[in-house]
Amino acid sequence: MRSFLPSLALAAALVACAARPPQNDAALYNDLGGMPGIQRVIGDMIDRSVVDPRIAWSFDNTNHDRLKRLISQQVCNLSGGPCARRERGMGPAHRHLGLRESHFNAVVEHLQDSMDAAGTPFRAQLRLLRLLAPMKREIVAG
Known about the structure:
- Helix 1 (4-18) packs across helix 7 (122-132) and helix 3 packs across helix 4.
- This protein has helices spanning 4-18, 26-31, 34-49, 64-78, 90-94, 101-118, 122-132, 136-139.
- It has eight helices and no strands.
- By secondary structure, the chain is an all-alpha fold.
- The longest helix has 18 residues, at 101-118.
- Helix content is 63%, strand content 0%.
- Residues 1-24 have low confidence and may be disordered.
- The protein is globular.
């Protein structure tokens, strides 16, 4: 379990960065360990999420291996890696789930824990979260 203070500081950092448009950061791709590092983190995040009773239901009827691959490719692209960008937005992929902020936060918690477990440098974690934060608007139901 994460301590309250780092989570609060991280939340403040995300709020401060969310208004800025995301930009690809080629150095981030390397700091994440390239595609093998990204796949390790994303695979662990999905594995944690599918057993979390707060959000496990949202992964029912989902091909977990395909999901790991798609999210890894998305992170690869966002972080400046060589992966092609997918044009499908987050809204169509999540709208039918009726996700709330608490569900989004649970996945972010698992992502942070997975990055910690992989030894991802804290600055790289913040840079990745900054790139992902704007997606919240499309993922969380109004």
